[in-house]
UniProtKB/TrEMBL annotation:
Domain Response regulatory: 4-122
InterPro entries: CheY-like_superfamily, NreC/VraR/RcsB-like_REC, Sig_transdc_resp-reg_C-effctor, Sig_transdc_resp-reg_receiver, Tscrpt_reg_LuxR_C, WalR-like
Stated name of the protein: DNA-binding response regulator
Residues annotated as domain HTH luxR-type: 151-216
GO biological process: one example: regulation of DNA-templated transcription
4-aspartylphosphate: modified positions: D55
Amino acid sequence: MPIRVLLVDDQPLLRTGFRMILEAEHDLAVIGEAGDGVQALDQVRALQPDVVLMDIRMPRMDGVEATRRITGPEKDGPAKVLVLTTFDLDEYVVEALRAGASGFLLKDAPAGELVQAIRVVAAGEAMLAPSVTRRLLDMYAGKLPSGEESVPDALSTLTEREVEVLKLVARGLSNAEVAADLFVSETTVKTHVGHVLTKLGLRDRVQAAVFAYESGLVRPGN
């Protein structure tokens, strides 16, 4: 079965360009389009996409609020959200990640990167590109709430190795890169990541990275 994709962007030309790229792939199918967050919610309910390619700045309802509703407790389906942002990486992207997005991508990313990002998100993983994620978190982590009240207790549930893994995930390393850094197998890393997400009540690696910055475990620039 192909991955069902919903395109959400207020610029029709961009939606057309994304459609042309995605429909050239045998395992991807664009099942609908929306020009704002309100339309996106209607389309998600009606079409049940696997992945929503979501713009941030749109009329009526922006991508942050639409993401929150699509992935929240009262969600209408299993859709994952991949956020699109411009090159300047505005602070709303961080809010979208915290709202439930599984990752983000620059609008000027190469076609192959867009296709791969959709496949990664559809598979239940997070799109955590090191070069982009690190730059975004370095720029904006200082503006996020510190969460000082709950952080010490939350981190105390992790083992020393799990804390090490969380720090490396926050730096944007893949499982293979974490495994090489810690001299363990990739399977072991996956197990540690799973334990970290479960213990901290997080959904995926993106939320884990944001948590690490919010908690002060990792500081911008480190």
